[in-house]
Amino acid sequence: MPRDHEAQRLDRFLAAQLNITRSEAKELIKKRLVTVNGSTARLFDMKIDPDKDIVSSEGRDITYRKYVYIMLNKPAGVVCATKDELSPTVLSLIPPELRRKKLFPAGRLDKDTEGFVFITDDGETAHKMLSPKSHVPKLYYAELEHEAEESYIDRFREGLVIDGGEKCLPAEIEICEDRKKVYITLHEGKYHQVKRMAEAVGNKVVFLKRIKIGGIALDEDLPLGKCREILHKEIVNLYTK
Ligand code: URA
Q1: What would the pLDDT profile of 91-116 be if each residue is shown by its tens digit?
Q2: Ligand 1 atom at minimal distance to the Cα of residue 196
Q3: Apex CA 222: angle with CA 107 and CA 17, to 5°?
Q4: Where in the chain is the domain with CATH 3.30.70.580?
Q5: Going by fewer Cβ within 10 Å, which terminus of the chain is more open, N or C?
Q6: Range(s) for CATH 3.10.290.10 in the chain?
Q7: Would you say the CB of residue 193 lies under 6 angstroms from ligand 1?
């Protein structure tokens, strides 16, 4: 959640908000391209209050964001990691204007899973969202190898035991008219959980997409591989059940 902000050095502010290096930020100041409340800034270490001061660079006001929150529609083949030797990572799909140094995916989808990945540089919000205590529901759309049986509804609700003897929290499954298509809501995030739950009832997931986290749904018109910023005021919806 956005919190109160403290005074910051101007060069640091510019580097973080414009996703440039400190030297590039200093260069902008040196070239007299930065103003604070309408006056040309001259000192790299000038203290500014990001909440109150209007900083502008090359004639454009900078909208201050302490943290960035991003919705990515992850395609298959991309890994939820900050670095990977072999495959592209979700961070490589973030457009330059949203890039920040400390961004990371909060929670993981498998490499072959599509859909909503929440990416942020706000560790506190990510932790809260991921904490089992928060019970933030995650909604998945899955296609199964075999038709879903009516009995799955109770078995999911009662809490399935998946391979290795792990007991899942109660989950919901909604079966579509085409019974190979289901919507599954989980309230926790065990490794390969949807796939292992399908296996526990004798079925198999052939396609998986996460479509909602808490009260925030993946934008239907967000193409695969694209991101959109989640506004600070929308973030409270993450915790809506
Ligand atoms: N469950 C899975 O099996 N895979 C995912 O990527 C997410 C949930």
Answers
A1: 999 998 888 889 999 999 999 999 99
A2: 3
A3: 65
A4: 69-132+217-239
A5: C
A6: 8-61
A7: yes
Q: Report the percentage of the chain scoring pLDDT > 70.
A: 98
Query: Given ligand 1 and candidates 72, 90, 110, 163, which is best to mutate, with the most ligand atoms within 8 Å of its CB?
Result: 110
> Which of 172, 165, 167, 160 is CA-nearest to residue 212?
172
Give the closest residue (by CA) to ligand 1 atom 4: 192
Q: Which of these, 81, 80, 85, lies nearest to 115 by C-alpha position?
A: 80
Q: How far is the CA of 69 from the centre of ligand 1 (A)?
A: 22
**Has 163 been annotated as catalytic?**
no
Q: Which fold has domain 69-132+217-239?
A: Alpha-Beta Plaits (3.30.70)
* Ligand 1 nearest atom to the CA of residue 210, by list position: 7
According to the CATH classification, is domain 8-61 in 3.10.290.10? yes
Give the residue, by CA position, lying nearest to ligand 1 atom 2: 192
- The beta strands (E) that lie in 98-162 are given as 104-105, 114-120, 138-144, 161-162
